[in-house]
Specification:
This protein has 168 residues and is an alpha+beta fold. The structure holds zinc ion (2 copies).
Protein backbone atom coordinates (compact mmCIF):
# COMPACT_ATOMS: atom_id res chain seq x y z
CA UNK A 1 0.00 0.00 0.00
CA UNK A 2 1.60 3.23 -1.23
CA UNK A 3 4.94 1.49 -1.02
CA UNK A 4 4.63 0.72 2.68
CA UNK A 5 5.22 -2.75 3.93
CA UNK A 6 4.55 -4.42 7.23
CA UNK A 7 8.22 -5.03 8.00
CA UNK A 8 9.23 -1.37 8.04
CA UNK A 9 10.58 0.07 11.26
CA UNK A 10 8.93 3.17 12.69
CA UNK A 11 11.84 5.27 11.40
CA UNK A 12 11.52 3.79 7.92
CA UNK A 13 7.79 4.48 7.99
CA UNK A 14 8.39 8.08 8.97
CA UNK A 15 10.95 8.50 6.20
CA UNK A 16 8.63 6.88 3.69
CA UNK A 17 5.82 9.17 4.81
CA UNK A 18 8.00 12.24 4.25
CA UNK A 19 9.04 10.92 0.85
CA UNK A 20 5.41 10.41 -0.16
CA UNK A 21 4.50 13.90 0.98
CA UNK A 22 7.13 15.48 -1.22
CA UNK A 23 6.30 13.12 -4.07
CA UNK A 24 2.67 14.22 -4.05
CA UNK A 25 3.70 17.79 -3.53
CA UNK A 26 1.63 18.03 -0.31
CA UNK A 27 -1.59 17.68 -2.30
CA UNK A 28 -2.98 14.63 -0.59
CA UNK A 29 -1.64 15.23 2.87
CA UNK A 30 -4.76 14.09 4.74
CA UNK A 31 -4.77 10.77 2.91
CA UNK A 32 -1.08 10.33 3.51
CA UNK A 33 -1.56 11.03 7.21
CA UNK A 34 -4.18 8.29 7.36
CA UNK A 35 -1.90 5.87 5.57
CA UNK A 36 0.92 6.75 7.93
CA UNK A 37 -1.41 6.17 10.86
CA UNK A 38 -2.48 2.77 9.57
CA UNK A 39 1.07 1.65 9.19
CA UNK A 40 1.73 2.49 12.82
CA UNK A 41 -1.26 0.47 14.00
CA UNK A 42 -0.16 -2.88 15.40
CA UNK A 43 -3.49 -4.57 14.71
CA UNK A 44 -3.39 -3.47 11.11
CA UNK A 45 0.20 -4.61 10.70
CA UNK A 46 -0.78 -7.97 12.14
CA UNK A 47 -3.65 -8.19 9.67
CA UNK A 48 -1.31 -7.44 6.76
CA UNK A 49 1.01 -10.13 7.93
CA UNK A 50 -1.34 -12.93 8.95
CA UNK A 51 -4.25 -12.07 6.58
CA UNK A 52 -6.62 -13.76 9.01
CA UNK A 53 -10.24 -12.82 8.30
CA UNK A 54 -11.09 -12.16 11.92
CA UNK A 55 -8.03 -9.96 12.35
CA UNK A 56 -9.15 -7.99 9.28
CA UNK A 57 -12.66 -7.63 10.71
CA UNK A 58 -11.21 -6.53 14.00
CA UNK A 59 -9.32 -3.74 12.23
CA UNK A 60 -12.53 -2.44 10.71
CA UNK A 61 -13.97 -1.99 14.16
CA UNK A 62 -10.96 -1.00 16.18
CA UNK A 63 -9.09 1.44 13.96
CA UNK A 64 -9.74 5.15 14.15
CA UNK A 65 -9.92 5.74 10.39
CA UNK A 66 -9.95 2.22 9.03
CA UNK A 67 -8.98 1.75 5.39
CA UNK A 68 -12.30 0.07 4.73
CA UNK A 69 -11.85 -0.53 1.01
CA UNK A 70 -8.47 -2.08 1.51
CA UNK A 71 -9.68 -4.18 4.43
CA UNK A 72 -12.71 -5.34 2.47
CA UNK A 73 -10.47 -6.35 -0.42
CA UNK A 74 -8.16 -8.21 1.92
CA UNK A 75 -11.16 -9.89 3.51
CA UNK A 76 -12.39 -11.14 0.16
CA UNK A 77 -9.04 -12.25 -1.14
CA UNK A 78 -7.66 -13.94 1.92
CA UNK A 79 -7.36 -17.70 1.85
CA UNK A 80 -6.22 -17.94 5.42
CA UNK A 81 -8.28 -19.50 8.18
CA UNK A 82 -9.52 -17.40 11.06
CA UNK A 83 -7.21 -17.37 14.03
CA UNK A 84 -8.69 -19.20 16.94
CA UNK A 85 -7.37 -18.44 20.34
CA UNK A 86 -7.48 -21.52 22.49
CA UNK A 87 -7.92 -20.85 26.15
CA UNK A 88 -5.24 -22.28 28.29
CA UNK A 89 -6.67 -25.06 30.35
CA UNK A 90 -6.24 -24.96 34.08
CA UNK A 91 -6.64 -28.70 34.40
CA UNK A 92 -3.39 -29.04 36.28
CA UNK A 93 -4.76 -26.95 39.13
CA UNK A 94 -8.10 -28.68 39.18
CA UNK A 95 -6.50 -32.10 39.16
CA UNK A 96 -4.01 -31.51 41.91
CA UNK A 97 -5.15 -32.57 45.34
CA UNK A 98 -5.16 -29.81 47.93
CA UNK A 99 -3.75 -30.85 51.25
CA UNK A 100 -4.39 -29.79 54.81
CA UNK A 101 -2.14 -26.98 55.98
CA UNK A 102 -1.82 -28.55 59.39
CA UNK A 103 -1.45 -32.30 58.89
CA UNK A 104 -0.39 -32.32 55.25
CA UNK A 105 -2.85 -35.04 54.30
CA UNK A 106 -5.29 -34.81 51.44
CA UNK A 107 -8.07 -32.31 52.10
CA UNK A 108 -10.19 -32.94 49.02
CA UNK A 109 -9.99 -34.81 45.75
CA UNK A 110 -9.62 -31.48 43.94
CA UNK A 111 -10.28 -27.79 44.50
CA UNK A 112 -13.68 -28.18 42.87
CA UNK A 113 -14.92 -31.22 44.74
CA UNK A 114 -17.46 -30.68 47.49
CA UNK A 115 -16.09 -31.15 50.94
CA UNK A 116 -16.02 -29.81 54.52
CA UNK A 117 -12.97 -27.87 55.56
CA UNK A 118 -11.70 -25.01 57.68
CA UNK A 119 -10.39 -21.70 56.58
CA UNK A 120 -7.75 -20.18 58.82
CA UNK A 121 -7.00 -16.55 58.35
CA UNK A 122 -4.43 -14.19 59.81
CA UNK A 123 -2.19 -11.43 58.50
CA UNK A 124 -0.05 -14.03 56.78
CA UNK A 125 -2.90 -15.00 54.50
CA UNK A 126 -5.37 -17.85 54.50
CA UNK A 127 -4.88 -21.56 54.79
CA UNK A 128 -7.11 -24.58 54.46
CA UNK A 129 -7.25 -27.44 56.87
CA UNK A 130 -9.40 -30.32 58.00
CA UNK A 131 -12.02 -29.14 60.45
CA UNK A 132 -10.70 -31.47 63.16
CA UNK A 133 -7.10 -30.33 62.57
CA UNK A 134 -8.15 -26.69 62.72
CA UNK A 135 -10.13 -27.12 65.93
CA UNK A 136 -7.21 -28.89 67.59
CA UNK A 137 -4.77 -26.26 66.38
CA UNK A 138 -6.87 -23.31 67.53
CA UNK A 139 -7.44 -24.76 70.99
CA UNK A 140 -3.66 -24.87 71.43
CA UNK A 141 -2.69 -21.71 69.55
CA UNK A 142 -5.27 -18.98 69.14
CA UNK A 143 -2.64 -16.63 67.76
CA UNK A 144 -0.51 -17.07 64.65
CA UNK A 145 3.07 -18.00 65.51
CA UNK A 146 4.39 -15.64 62.83
CA UNK A 147 2.27 -12.49 62.75
CA UNK A 148 0.90 -12.91 66.32
CA UNK A 149 -2.64 -12.05 65.21
CA UNK A 150 -5.59 -14.06 66.43
CA UNK A 151 -6.44 -16.62 63.82
CA UNK A 152 -9.88 -16.30 62.32
CA UNK A 153 -11.42 -19.67 61.90
CA UNK A 154 -14.25 -20.48 59.56
CA UNK A 155 -15.73 -23.90 59.17
CA UNK A 156 -17.02 -24.29 55.68
CA UNK A 157 -19.28 -27.21 55.00
CA UNK A 158 -20.40 -28.75 51.81
CA UNK A 159 -18.55 -26.37 49.58
CA UNK A 160 -15.41 -26.48 47.50
CA UNK A 161 -12.08 -24.76 47.87
CA UNK A 162 -12.35 -23.09 44.52
CA UNK A 163 -15.56 -21.25 45.42
CA UNK A 164 -14.15 -20.27 48.77
CA UNK A 165 -11.03 -18.87 47.17
CA UNK A 166 -13.17 -16.56 45.10
CA UNK A 167 -15.35 -15.52 48.01
CA UNK A 168 -12.73 -14.52 50.57
ZN1 LIG B 1 -5.50 -32.07 58.56
ZN1 LIG C 1 -0.03 -15.01 60.69
Amino acid sequence: MLGYNAEMSSLQRKEHHEKLKSKYNNKINAELEYAYGWMGNGNFLDALQNQAPNQIEYCKRSMEHPPLKLLEKMRQETTVQAITLTRKKCEADIMSKPSCYLCGKTLAESIVSITDFSLLKCNCGQQYAHISCADKHISNNSQCGICKKYIMLNHIRHSNLHKTLLRF
